[in-house]
Design goal:
Blueprint (H helix, E strand, L loop, with lengths): L5 E2 L2 E2 L3 H33 E4 L2 E4 L23 H7 L8 H19 L1 H46 L4 H25 L8 H13 L1 H12 L4 H16 L15 H30 L6 H22 L2 H10 L3 H19 L12 H45 L7 H44 L17 H58 L3 H27 L12 E2 H9 L8 E4 L5 E2 L1 H20 L7 E7 L5 E6 L7 H12 L6 H5 L1 H13 L2 E7 L2 E8 L12
Parallel strand pairs: 6-8
Antiparallel strand pairs: 1-2, 3-4, 5-7, 8-9, 9-11, 10-11
Helix pairs in contact: 1-3, 3-14, 4-5, 4-8, 4-9, 4-13, 7-8, 8-9, 9-10, 9-13, 11-13, 12-13, 14-15, 15-16, 17-18, 18-21, 19-21
């Protein structure tokens, strides 16, 4: 029993040691809780003092004021000691410091006496996860070593098949350095694996260390003899296969079900990597020699089958995120090119032809080596990531176990009832006002304040809008926060009122300026029309047409300002207008209208009350398509029908388009027109389209395609004339 109650250097089996341990832990906790509140009081006194019901700044305080950091309570009569004594026992008036001390000190003492056994159990579990971490780090070292050794194998096979030329010997010897460095790192980490990590893991580690000298022997054989390509592959692969066995040891020696899937996925990927790398070396040798030598083709096909089998195993045990990561990693141009080369080589070998991957190139082996390295390196990257995930997960589990060991001391069986009663009383006195403060604050932020802002926008005056205070009347810090929040609420209403008045003034200014400019532009258009009727010279007439077109665009810009100000355009049509006329009217307000091709449905008319806004909306979309597409391209305006009885209008261009983020932001603005601010002036067209669409229940959406952008306008059936609506 004594051994079970020993933790660290404290022997809690002895009662005096237990008391001494309690004092050592409780006093630091008291200081941690006490000092911040003492310093908080001091800082509060330095920042300002209460005078009546307001706080005076430091520069106006007297030395005596520093000793009165809190205002006198109106509800507490002075000189009544009995009333003061009774208030000391009102929990809702206790300072937060006192409540926290009461909540922490008692459970801490109980946990020290009772929780030792659970602490030791949790600590042993944390030690198991620590060993898993060490084995996962050694597994990462194995992954690096097998990666470098597989690359050396493939270079050695290429060197042998190419006739052991000096050009192929140099990269092979260069690869010796990374392999030796990875082997040295493996030796360093393997030294930490003792029998405590499991007999199988310890035995396998010793076996792996004994196989490392075979690497140098294999090199000497390759460089100093006439060993063929296939035996070279076999010698290296035997070493790699033994190394890869260590991945299965990560989850052994304990109950780590959380890691079983990742360990199985890592093991499958290591075997798939070895098979993919082996294919790289075999086909490189065949490409260098011009054909597969005896047994190489069968070995190549078997390696491919082994790779596919292990990838299937990986997909069966991996998580959906890991499968998606594999699909995103082991992909690309190199992977596709390697697959094409592999199939071509197999076809040539089946026909008995010479292995000639690309007749126009002389470096088939290098070309295949580079292409296949894309898939090989992709699988290696996945190995590393899953190994890192295992390491992170084991670290997390270890930390959780250690945290559980520390928290285990927080529970008591001897004094549980007393702790629960005291904790419940303290928690209720603390949580109840906090909960009320939180509930009312959220209600203010989510309902009352937005409703007040809405009323201010309608009325423009905050007179009579006095917010009720939050229902927390305690005198502790929570009550002070509630009063501070009330003050913030009142200030927010005042600022919202000022903003509403300012917005109204700005809107009125927009309206006045736009109306004046509209009058002048309309007069200008009339003068230009008169000049056009009496002009005979074609050059001047063309110039007048251009000027008339520019004036029309100026009129539309003035209408944009009216939309910004929230003004409705005057109704110009009492009868429905044909869709073709609506589109022509929109084209008359844009520059470069001759580039627009219209493919419109017949027998469709737009309701007269919406004609002007639909013309305005289409003009903005068409102008945007013309502005952001090459001059020599066309912009297409087409129509289609909806099952609900509405109409679909599309504006399609072949311009520069938008990125996915820009497209999402633009569609969000189109769906919900933002508040007018400075940014709206830079994207006025987008804002105007959103406002006009919102006014008539029209939906506008932007979609990207390979050669530009498509704006889709969905006109509801209510805007189409009943007699002319499409069937």
């Amino acid at each position: 029993m004594t051994s079970l109650l020993c933790w660290g250097r404290f022997d809690v089996s002895h009662p005096f040691q237990a008391v001494r341990w309690f004092v050592r832990l409780a006093l630091p906790a008291w200081r941690v809780l006490k000092l911040p509140f003492i310093s908080g009081c001091a800082s509060g006194a330095d920042a300002g003092v209460y005078v009546g019901q307001r706080v005076e700044p430091v520069s106006n305080r007297s030395p005596a004021d520093v000793h009165r950091p809190h205002p006198p309570s109106p509800s507490m009569p002075h000189g009544r000691n009995g009333e003061k004594g009774r208030r000391k026992f009102r929990f809702r008036d206790w300072r937060v410091r006192s409540r926290l001390i009461a909540l922490i000190v008692i459970p801490t003492g109980v946990s020290i006496v009772v929780g030792a056994q659970q602490v030791i159990t949790s600590w042993n579990l944390a030690s198991q996860y620590q060993r898993v971490m060490d084995k996962s780090e050694l597994s990462a070292s194995v992954t690096e070593l097998t990666h470098q050794l597989a690359l050396e194998r493939d270079l050695a096979v290429h060197y042998v098949a190419a006739g052991r030329t000096p050009e192929r010997e140099e990269p092979l010897r260069t690869q010796f350095g990374p392999v030796d460095a990875a082997a040295e790192d493996f030796r360093d980490k393997a030294a930490a694996i003792t029998p405590a990590y499991g007999e199988s893991a310890s035995a396998l580690t010793r076996q792996l260390l004994s196989r490392l000298p075979e690497i140098a022997a294999t090199r000497n054989t390759v460089l100093g003899s006439e060993l063929l390509a296939l035996p070279t592959v076999t010698k290296y692969s035997q070493i790699i296969a033994v190394l890869a066995q260590f991945h299965d040891q990560i989850g052994k020696g304990g109950d780590q079900e959380e890691l079983a899937g990742d360990v199985a996925a890592l093991s499958a990927l290591s075997k798939a990597y070895d098979a993919a790398s082996e294919q790289r070396g075999l086909l490189a040798a065949a490409a260098a020699a011009g054909r597969f030598q005896s047994g190489e083709l069968d070995r190549f096909i078997a390696a491919r089958a082994r790779q596919e089998s292990e990838v299937t195993v990986f997909r069966a045990v991996a998580t959906p995120e890991q499968r998606q990561l594999y699909d995103d990693t082991v992909t690309g141009t190199l992977v596709d090119r390697a697959e094409v080369i592999r199939l071509r080589a197999l076809a040539q070998a089946a026909e008995g032809d010479r292995i000639d991957i690309e007749p126009e190139r002389q470096d088939d082996a290098d070309h295949w080596f580079e292409a296949s390295s894309g898939s090989v390196n992709g699988i290696w990257t996945m190995q590393r990531r899953i190994g890192e995930a295992i390491n992170v997960q084991s670290r997390t589990l270890k930390d959780a176990a250690r945290q559980e060991a520390l928290l285990a001391a927080a529970y008591s069986l001897l004094l549980l009832l007393a702790v629960l009663i005291i904790t419940a009383i303290m928690a209720r006195s603390l949580v109840s006002p906090l909960r009320r403060l939180r509930t009312e604050a959220l209600h203010i932020a989510g309902a009352r304040l937005p409703e007040t802002v809405r009323l201010l926008r309608e009325r423009g005056d905050e007179a009579g809008l006095v917010p009720p205070p939050i229902g927390v009347d305690s005198r502790d810090e929570i009550g002070e926060v509630a009063r501070a929040f009330d003050e913030v609420h009142r200030e927010a209403i005042r600022l919202a009122g000022e903003e509403s008045r300012l917005r109204a003034n700005v809107n009125a200014m927009f309206v006045n300026l736009s109306r004046r400019s509209q009058t002048m532009v309309q007069r200008q258009i009339q003068i230009i029309d008169g000049l056009e009727q009496g002009e005979q010279d074609e050059r001047r007439l063309a110039g007048l047409f251009s000027l008339d077109h520019l004036a029309t665009r100026m009129r539309r810009n003035n209408e944009n300002l009216l939309v910004l100000a929230g003004q409705d355009a005057p109704r110009r049509y009492n009868e429905p207008v044909g869709l073709a006329d609506v589109v022509r009217a929109a084209l008359s307000e844009v520059e470069g209208y001759e580039r627009v091709v219209a493919k419109l449905a017949e027998g469709v008319a737009v309701s007269g009350q919406a004609v002007n806004d639909i013309v305005h909306l289409l003009a903005e979309l068409i102008e945007n398509a013309l502005a952001f597409s090459p001059y020599e391209t066309r912009v297409t305006v087409a129509t289609g029908t909806m099952e609900s009885g509405g109409l679909v209008l599309t504006v399609d261009d072949t311009g520069i388009g938008m990125t996915q983020d820009e497209l999402e932001q633009a569609n969000a603005r189109l769906a919900h027109a933002p508040t007018v601010d400075v940014s709206v002036s830079r994207r006025m067209g987008l804002f105007v389209v959103a406002r006009l669409a919102q006014r008539h229940g029209v939906r506008v959406e932007l979609r990207s395609h390979n050669a530009g952008l498509t704006a889709i306008v969905l006109l509801p059936g209510s805007l189409l004339h009943p007699h002319l609506a499409p069937a």
